[in-house]
Amino acid sequence: MDTTGLRERAEAWRKADPDPETQAELAQVLATSDWADLADRFAQDLEFGTAGLRGVLGAGPNRMNRAVVRRTTAGFARYLKATVPDVTTRGVVVGRDARRLSKELAEDAAAVFVAEGIPAHVFPEPVPTPVTAFAVLHLNAAAAVMVTASHNPPEYNGYKVYWGNGAQIVPPQDVGIADAIAKVEPANQVPLLTPAEGRAKGLWRDLSEDVGNAYLRAILDLRLYKKGSDTLSLVYTAMHGVGGPWAVLALKEAGFPRVTPVAEQQQPDGRFPTVRFPNPEEPGAMDLSVATAERVKADVVLANDPDADRLAVMARDASGKLRLLTGNEVGVLLGHYVLTQGTKHGRAHVVTTIVSSTQLGEIARGLGAAYDEVLTGFKWIANRALERSKQEGTQFVFGYEEALGYTVGTATRDKDGVGAALVVADMAAWCESRGTHLLGYLEEIQRTFGLHVGAQRNVTLPGAAGAQTIRAIMQAFRASPPERIGGTRVSAVRDYQKGEGGLPPSNVVAFALEGGGRVTLRPSGTEPKIKYYFEHKETPAPGEPLPQARERAEAKLSALIDAFLVLARERGQPA
Length: 575
Known about the structure:
Protein name: Phospho-sugar mutase
CATH superfamily of the largest domain: Alpha-D-Glucose-1,6-Bisphosphate, subunit A, domain 3
Radius of gyration: 24 Å
Shape: globular
CATH architecture of the largest domain: 3-Layer(aba) Sandwich
GO molecular function: magnesium ion binding; phosphopentomutase activity
Organism: Corallococcus terminator
Keywords: Isomerase, Magnesium, Metal-binding, Phosphoprotein
CATH topology of the largest domain: Alpha-D-Glucose-1,6-Bisphosphate, Chain A, domain 3
Cofactor: Mg(2+)
Oligomer: single chain
């Protein structure tokens, strides 16, 4: 390790860092000569990709901090001025969640935009990510920045970028922005205007409640049943995030008076004190929700992640037991509900991802709807919906990804946990009016279109060595794809690095299985993980109790997972 060169780079960064806190942090690391820590902080610039930026808060170019955000925003602003002729008229929306440093990072971004002569439409208080996405279209802005790390742990923050079409950026925009960022001067030389200076020039524009009210009206229009329920009991958790007041107000406006928030998690708190990991999918994250639901005898539990773009759903089965639905199950319910109960103004179009269940495709084909599978990430769902609507006149009605992301209609061009919560409640009221419940409705769908069960396994491999291991695992499966996984024959191998199915190249490999199952593997785009996705399809026998068929399906899925993990260990995954 060239410690002399590393120290020189660190000293130069420290001197250009505009934040006294991270300056002092880096000075302390230098004083202790912690070369491993320094090497990680300066291993690379935090990568700007189609998800923008996301990383651990701290000093250095490979961390999230004010210096990185100022330089990133300057590059983004200059790219916009070079590619969007009317950006100085339309401006850019700036929103933020309630995480540590979100306020400062959002204010820095706005200060750079206005110094570049670009109006900044700034949310003065924390807002859900879908509200920022909605504001792009509502205000006809040229772009947006949302400061959030979504459901990551408290030590993270991020910087999400939207284009003027309301969707997250896709290539080549990400490459163009990254190239512009690389040319930006040191952070302490990036021009800024204070909020007062920006307001005096008419460029810093604080957004009023009108935008939020327009968003609430838009998502209320997404309901299909539209009658609410005086008897349905709902529990809602904001998971210490920003969705609380928005979701509760929307549900009550929609005619659901019996909404009980999880009090311990309703207020924003970037420390996330009651959960180890603020993701509804994580073990233990829903414990307080379950306790609240049992106390008030709730029928349905709705949970947002901290920036309220994801939604988890729990519902009671026929025995009265609460069950957490998978992201695929919620996606299938919403997709079927929208396709069968929604008003049609043209050929309906639904979209999901290559790692989500194949069942939405079976439903779409059965109902004569247009259907697409796209790469992982809602940016691909939104942009495919826009593309197909323009080319074929289809009407996008629903999109989802298995990681609890859903959007109904076109109020937002990104996943929307608040809007989805509202439509799930609407669907539950519709089920109630038919004498059933959400899981009863799911059984109806599964008896018609098959019982699909799925699971995901994540293996965390941090640091440079972990990244190398992940690359080796992916390469090994490409070089030597299995002919069988357990007792099931592999019927097709899809390597999306080669642009499978006309999609952009992506580091994903999928093995289609006889009988309709699938195993897919890919590195995470935001965390040091390799992700494995499993799906098995079972056909219930006529008259067979569905729990019995589910038990059989889950056993086969478990055997599939075990067999694949043996193959993964043979190809370099640590035990």
